[in-house]
What does this fold into?
Amino acid sequence: MAVDCSTTASKAVIHDDAGRVVAQAARPLETRQPRAAWHEQDAEQWWVATRDAIAAAVGTLADPGAVRALCVTHQRESFVCLDADGRPLRSAILWLDGRAHQEIAALGSRRVHEVSGKPPDTTPAIYKLAWLARHEPDVLRDAVHVGDVQAYLARRLTGRWATCHASADTLGLFDLQHLDWSAELLELAGVRVEQLPELVAAGDEIGRVSPAVARSLGLPGPIPLVAGIGDGQAAGLGLGATVPGVAYLNLGTSMVLGVQSGEYRWDPAFRTLVGIRPGTYTLETVLNAAAYVATWCREQFGARGADGVAGAELEAAAAVLPIGAEGLLTLPYWNAAQTPHWDPLARGAVLGWHGRHTTAHFYRSILEGVGFELRLHLERLEEVTGRPIESIRVGGGGARSALWMRIITDITQRPVLVCAESEISAASWSPAFGRMCA
It folds into this structure.
């Protein structure tokens, strides 16, 4: 069983030995925006949504005892601060939160980029932790635990405060070349090493789900919790983007494009993470507002259908418009600009309005704007690495839009393959993870 605790929902997917999905369930997560550019969640809901999704999926099985192991992947860079009893001291701060632009300007440097692999940007937690140290010092001082989503769920499931290297490094506190917490970066963030989770290699056992928790999940007894990796790398594994010339594209709330590297590289053209396989690195480009902007447009300007989904008519109307949205151009920086600009203060813009334009033109221009950002990312990544990207494999909610896939294919001029499995990050874990460990 794999769980993907992402930005919008926690999803549990159960596979058989051949990798076929035999059961799945999801429970939504609510994101709050108490101020402009702030994005927070109640970490307790990470647990409630995960517990309920697992229980719902297990409840459809004829034999719940057939579930032999559990693995968690999750939204990266998001973090929570806990007291000694594991209670959150404040709301969790998410990866797309943009409150720390002053800390990015003050602390972001080539040295931080070189050690962590992360360009100074809104996503790494290091700058938001520094913001806490400055604005809410009591929280960071009193926190017994500071960690990522996997560490929090591992503690709830097994009682152990631990996470995987390929989850921990996204916090921006990690020395990528030595696969350990960096004292230099911890000092910048104001975090103590004893607050951070233990580090476990991908595929190793974190611990066994406690008997009481197993019962609440509908399982007859404890099972192993296997250390998982971040949802972006997990999507790359699920899509089979582990060979040269093949990139994975996770078109969800954000847009993440990734390739694998056998050597450590750092450059503004990408951010560097622990790789899918031991001894490798993942090079990723990112735009923090992809489906986020498309969904915003549908909800703000689209009609709500009988199924409760807003904006279906915008998708249909945009599909019959000419390429280029008749001169309307959208710069999709609703949550700052990432690759290759890394500008936390950049904001979206729409250019070229005239009286013929409709909301459908606006919607199409958003999809096209994200597509042009992707082309920019591709070309810069190829230029720096010297390796061509010959095909793109796509997963995530945005991949369900045939219009968006056609736009991306036209703009990038690359073969784009869409995965039939909807939950790629979770779906990758059962057979593929077993092969990786072997």
The CA atoms of residues 29 and 45 lie 7 Å apart. The longest strand covers residues 21-28. Confidence is low (pLDDT under 50) at residues 428-438. The chain has 16 helices and 22 strands.
